[in-house]
Amino acid sequence: MGKNIVEKVFEAHLAYGEASPGSRVGLRVDQVYTQDATGTMAWLQFEAIGVDRVKVPLAVSYVDHNMLQSNFMNADDHEFLRTSAARFGAWFSRPGNGISHQVNLERFSAPGRIALGTDSHTPTGGGIGMIAIGVGGLDAATVMAGAPFELKMPDVVRVRLTGRLKRPWVAAMDVILELLRRLTVKGGVGRIIEYSGDGVKELSVPERATITNMGAELGATTSIFPSDERTLFFLKAQNREKDWVELKADEDARYADTIEINLSRLEPLIAMPHSPDNVKPVRELEGLKINQACIGSCTNSSYMALKETASILKGRAVAPGVSLLLNPGSKQVAEMLARDGITRDFVAAGARVLESSCGPCIGMGGSPGTEHVSIRTYNRNFKGRSGTKDAQVYLANPLLCALFALKGEIVDPRKSDIKVRKAKEPASYILNDNMLIPPSGGRTEIKKGPNIKEVPLKEPLSGAIDAEVLLVTGDNITTDDIMPAGSQILPLRSNIPAISEYVYSGMDQAFSRRALEARANGGGIIIGGENYGQGSSREHAALAPMFLGIKAVIAKSFARIHRSNLINFGILPLLFKDPADYGRVSQSDRLRIKGVKEAVASSQSYMVEDLTKGFSFEAVSNLTEREAELIIEGGLLPYTRAKFGK
Ligand code: MIC
Ligand code: SF4
C-alpha cells in the first residue's frame, strides 16, 4: 500500500511504535528550537533535568519576542539564553537576527527532517517539507535531553491545490484563510494537513511557509508540503542545496479526508475580530475605516511578499490617521530590503520600520488605540492580544494591508487603479550569519538576572481532588485568555510567582486572588468548553495555574499543545463524558473526585460529585500509559529527572 509524506517521514524517524493513525509513536527528532518567551523556562528546565549537553543533532535558541527593553528583565533573559546556549551546545540567534520561524526556514530547515519548536507556529518549516511541530518548553527540554518525542499519530488530511494564484490582490495568505473559513479553528485538531496537487508547484517555499505557519490556527498538529524543484530552488538560493531531498506521496497513498482548493478561483479574504476563522470576502467590508496597518511577522515576511507590497506604496503616502508599521521577519529579509531600496519605499510612504521581531503581533509595542481598527498580515487576532482590549483586529495579506493603509479604509481591491508588480523569487539571498552564534565548548557560566526564578515543582498526585470551581469558560478559550502576553506581562515569563498574578486577568481580574485562597483549601478546578487552550504553545498557561493550585480542568475538548502542557505540569485534563453536564456546573461549586490515582492508573473514568448542588457526573481522561505516569509523578520534570538526569 502506498504511503503519504507524513507516514514516510514518521517511519524514517521511528524510535518505537507504528506510524498508523491513532497509535502512540516515539520519534527521533533532528532539530529543536526555542524562542525567548518560552525558552527561558525550557532552558531552566533543561538545566534542572541535569544533562550536560543537548543530545539532538541541532538545537537553536532564538530571541524574537521579548525585545522591548523598558527595564533590565528582557536584556537579562537574553543574556541567560546566550550563556545557556553556549553552556549546553545550542546555536544562539541574537536579538535582531529575526523571528525564529523565518530564520529557521532560511538557515536550518530541511525536507524530510523532524523539528520541534517551543512555539505554535513551528509548522512554518512544513513549507520546506519538514515535519515541524509546536510543543511546550518542557517537552522540548526532555527531547534535548535525549528522549524521543511521543505523540498519538494524527490522521493525515490531504489538501489538493489546483490552478494558480493568478487573480490580482490574492496571495498565499488567502489560501489558509480559505481553509480556516471552511474548517474553523477546531478543524485541524488531531490532524496533519498534507498539501498536494498541481497547484503546489505554483507556490514558492516562502508562500508555502505562510500557509503552513497559519495552519496552526486550524488546531492542526502540523502541515507539510512536498519537497520538489521549488524547494531545491529555495535551498540553492540559501546555499544549502545539500539539504535537499525529494519528498512526495505515493500515487496510491491514503488519507483520512481530501479537501480541494482551486487557487485560480480564490478572492481576497479577511479574518474579522476576534478569531482567525471569522473569514469574509474583503468586498463585504468595503468602507470600514482603519487606524493602523501592520505588515510583517512570522506569517508574511518574505522578501518577495514585501517587495510586491512596496510596489503598492512606492511614490504614494499613507492616509492621514493611519499608522503603518513594518516588522520584517528576519535580518536576511531586512538586509535585502535595505539593499534594494525597498525599505526606502516603505519609509517614504510613511511606514514606521520596526526591528525584526514579533513586535505588535504579541503586543510588544505597536498597540492600537482605544477601539481602533488594526489590519494586520499576522496570524492571530484574539481579543486583547494586540495589547488593547477593545481594539478590532483584522487579518489579511500584505498587499491588501498596504492598499488599505493608503486609502485609510477597506476597499474592494479589484476596483483599485493601483497595480501590484509581481516580484521574482530571488536566485540568491544575502548570506550573512554574523548574528548566529554556533555552539561552543561548554565551559560558559550561565548568567541569571534577579528576575529569573527557579521552576516550581508540583507534589505527586494525591488520592482525591476536593476543590472549588474557580471559573467556567466558553468554547475556544485561547492561551492568550489563560495567560495573557503583551509588553507588561511577557518580561515575567521567567518568574512564575510574579506572572501567576495575571492568570485569566483579561477575563477576571480577581482570578489569581481567588485561586490563591482556594489553594489553601484543596485547590481549584476550571470548567472549559470545546477546544480549550487553543493558540500558543506557552506552557505558562499550565505552569502558572499549577502554581496557583489548579488541580484539574474539565472541558468538552482540548487543544493538543495545551493538553500536553497541562499533563506536563501535573494538572489533570478531564473530558465531560456527556457534554450536557457542562451546563450543570457553576463557578464556586465544590467538586470532589475520589480515587483519582487509581482511575488515572487504570479505568480513566472519574465520578465527579458536585457537593454544592448535590449531583454527580462522569468524566474521562484518555491518558496514555506515559501520560498517566506523568500525572501521578506530578509532571514531566520530576519524571524526566528520574529517567535521564544525573
Ligand atoms: C504566539 O504567537 O501566540 C506566540 C507568542 O508566539 C506563542 C508563544 C509564546 O506565548 O511565547 C506561540 O505561538 O506559541
Ligand atoms: Fe511572533 Fe506573532 Fe509569529 Fe507568534 S505569531 S512567533 S508572536 S510573530
Protein architecture, described:
With 646 residues, the chain is of the alpha/beta class. The chain has three domains: 5-265, Aconitase, domain 3; 269-415, Aconitase, domain 3, CATH 3.30.499; 465-644, Aconitase, domain 4, CATH 3.20.19. Helices cover 28% and strands 19% of the residues. It has a seven-stranded mixed barrel. Helix 2 (36-49) crosses helix 5 (137-144), helix 9 crosses helix 11 (342-349) and helix 9 packs parallel to helix 12. The two termini are 45 Å apart. The structure holds alpha-methylisocitric acid (MIC) and iron/sulfur cluster (SF4).
Quick description:
The protein contains 20 helices and 27 strands. The protein has 646 residues and is of the alpha/beta class.
Strands ordered across the widest β-sheet = 21-22-23-24-27-26-25
| Bound ligand species | alpha-methylisocitric acid, iron/sulfur cluster
The CATH superfamily of the largest domain bears the name Aconitase, domain 3
Poorly predicted regions? none
From the N-terminal CA to the C-terminal CA, the straight-line distance is 45 Å
What's the story with the biggest beta sheet?
A: 7 strands, mixed, barrel
| Proportion in helices | 25-40%
